[in-house]
Amino acid sequence: MVHNASAITENEKDMWRSSPFPTGLSRQKSMTFRCMKHNEELIMTESEGELFDLFGLERENVLQKRIEDIFPKEIAAFKKEMYERALNGESLTYESELNGIPFLAAIGPIYNKDGTVSEVYGFCVDLTERVSVETQLAESEQRFRSLMDHNIDALFSLNLEGKFTTVNKACTTLSGYSETELLNMTFNPFMMPDRRAAAIDQFKDALKGQAKMYETRIQQKNGGTRQIMFTLTPIIVLNKVLGVFGIAKDVTAKREAEKELRETKDLLESVIYHSSDAISVVHLTDYSVKVNPAFEFIYGWSQDELTNLTSHILPVVPEDKEAESERLMTIVKHGGYVKGVETIRLTKCGKRLNVSLSLSPIYGENGEVVALSAISRDITEKKLKEKALKESEEKYRIIAENTTDLVGVVDLEGNVKYVSPSNRLLLGFDPSLYDGKKIQGFFHSDDRAKVRMAMNEMVQTQKPVKFEVRCKHAHGHWVTLEANATPIANDSDQPDSFVVVARDLTERKKTEEMLRKSDKLSVLGQLAAGVAHEIRNPLTSIRGFLQLLQSKASENEDYYEIMLSEIDRINSIVGEFMLLAKPQAMNFTQTDLRQLLRHVISILDTQAILTNVQIYFESEPDLPEIWCVDNQIKQVFVNMLKNAIEAMPTGGSVHIQLKREGGYVVASFIDHGCGISEERLPTLGEPFYTTKEKGTGLGLMICYKIVENHHGKILINSKIDEGTTFSILLPIDENKPVS
Asked: Looking at the predicted structure, is the pLDDT value of residue 516 above 70?
């Protein structure tokens, strides 16, 4: 440290030593100066030092000059303010810039013997080096921050207690926590309970100065888990560990890919091992061979017997096929593929087999073919079948030409190859008319797209297809035919044509139409029965209330008897009316079944009282509402309760229970009547089947239909002389069903 005080006189040294400025400065360029106040103007009286020249100042333009005449306007105003304060006894420091040179200035008062201030003494030092260092430090910090913020891996630092001190954006993405949350946490919450102790040990090892790399699973804020590869490095400053810097790389996808690769490898090996086709892999360098069990079974050669080969041609290749084998292997060695070539192979015992052969190259790390795989399928039996098929073709031709069904052969383009003589009987045309023509031209225009789709399906699946088509008759009308098309495979096992067998559906269509009309009549009859059944329920309620009113009335007794008689008459007429169902709009609403059942009980309570039947209702609390058509479900409950009451003509009790079982709300109607025999239970719900003397069986049938439309169930449990339990299960659904 040096002092630049060449402008200080000996008399002023003591005054400088007592000034408030520091006594040591680094070897930076500096200068000293003095100024005094004269006639209310601040005059520069002294200025000396290297920094003086760097500022571009000349002494003749500075000494004895006003501050305003030396410095630019803004700096001059600031300096005047500082000097005025120094003249008032303050010691000040400030930073500024002149001529592009940053500097630090310190000024203070110079006291007279009487304690007054006569001058201001100042000292300036060049801050260029410091500013440069600060700039480099800022740039370095920005680079570090850029590395932190834009790194795809999670970067973080921990203090000695394991608390996060810095985190990057990838950290927040990986963990699910915000930066603020992370900086108030330790790493412990991220560690799985069974791995937390090991993570703490790894952290402690890093604090001891040992860089660590390990893999573990962490838990995210949302509860998810990720597989992470951690790299921990101690933060050492002046040989002292201040914390740990960490890099967290998410390897979840990589580990899952590795797992999938292992599973794929295992699966591939399993497929090869259990394949019914003979599979062999031959390496082109050392001629080593790997074969699967099917190869050993088909050809009789074991894996051990195929070791120490001197050629890539296996002993399963007959001598007369070696040239062909060499040609096929040359294709594969150059990266080509051989698929489905039919050839001959030899078993260990000398038996020749017809096989379908496919060859594929296997590439090494450098992209060269290092081995080849061969898949061969024994088609000997297939060949024998094809031969037998050809031998029997003539026999089938005789059958085709003498059958009453239409038989034809058509290629894939729709060209007719053959039509049986029965065509004259079905369509009235001579078979020669079709030769070489497109079969589509004889179909109804509306059916051509349907037939084309059926033919495409048959070609793709190589399986027979069935379709209906209208063909033109020689007399001009259209005949509906039911056609069955079967593909015919060529020598390459590919379909090249198909056989069509068709028969006239005209009479069958007429019969089906008659049946449909009969069904419509049946539906109309059942519909009428349904309407009648709808009337019976309100009639029952009216009659019950009339009887109740009659029991309390003291006059007009004849009127009540007439009304009851007429109601019985209506009921008798309705009883003869057959009913199936009344179409209704399915307007689903959320319904409380407890309230619905209470209403149903109030309707039939009078009938129950008159027959000496007690009704008991039990319900679980907090049952959910269900989506239903309340009037229809009400009708089901009315029918069930009414049947239970009528099952006990001499009196008794009916227990109604409402509870939740799984995804259903279950309403059970339990009576103690005569019961239903086991053999009759399966027929309940069929129209016109009933256990009542005057019943139609339609009420229970309609109940079944309503519950079925609500995607529910009706379960029946009954024993003779013990009673019957009807349970209606209605599904609990949060979403409104489609009407």
From this structure: no
